[in-house]
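Memo to structure team: turn this sequence into structure tokens by end of day. - J.P.
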Amino acid sequence: MQRKSTLALRFGAALLAAVCAVPAAARADAVRVLAPAADGAPEETTFEGKIASVSADEIVLDVDGQKRTFAAASVLGTQYDDEPIVLAAVRADLELGKYEDALAKLAEIPAADVRSARAEVAAEIESLRALATGRLALAGSEKLATGGRAVLAFVQKSPTHWRHYEAVELLGELLAKTGKPAEAEKQFAALEKAASPTVRARGKIARGTLALADAARLADAEKLFADALAELDGTAADANAPETNAARVLAQIGAARVLAGQKRFDDAEKTLETAIAATPRDAIATNAAIYVAQGEIRVAAGRPRDAIVSYVRVELLYPSARARRVEALKALVPLWTQTGRPDRAADARRTLERFNVAVDAAK
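Reply from structure team:
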């Protein structure tokens, strides 16, 4: 069975699933993907059947005796017919950046139920717990070490889960933020072993972003972003797939940051304009990444008021991209102060405090 939803694109597919959840007896396994519609716009589609196999690279779904294979990079979510019904709400919380709520709901599942669940369901629960903990730490609301341990445990225990590479990338980001670039580099390099060109490109993009932190490695970063774009534009990649487009935009963001590092600020802005034009308005994570980068580039160019516009856009339009929102808020505290708005700086500090983010980090 196949169901399409534009409503889900608007309000968050997992949220819609939580609201429309049906009794377990009436449910089937399901795989939710985002793919180009006839007009080229991304459209969410849910396929129902029986999940036949799962690997780090793909999911195979049996639909009325016919096998359908989905690249893991294109999958938004899965559902098992016998999973705890609360998992639909957990997935909604993850998509909305409500990581504490997701973890609270997961904690309500009796440990005995997790132990007695079939392996696939138990792995799904652990994947959600690891991602929620890791993302919470990346957003500054949990200790980095706690988030890193949770994600590392999942990566080591579930190398064949379809979220494996997503978790590897998150682990690398946590290690980088902890000040362990060499260990982060190893995790990002592991992405380049994936079957998916998109995942391989994301590995290069992550390594390029890591290189940007070292002014002496600007040329290395430039090459990695260029290599990522070449990977995505190669014949093996589906040029119209939403996940390919999202990765391409991330590579363009990296290229814009390289240009800013070379003091070519106008060229950097033009590169971001191209990225903005290629990104659907409802691609929350990608848009948030664009405007955080735009804010950073405008600060470097000596344009604090324009940078405020970029960061406020993240705060107002993409609040569920929590780590990016925190980055924007941290940047806004000194910018509001610098431009004579201490009241707005205080508002940003209060929001950070509400997220339990160390305000000293916002200087």
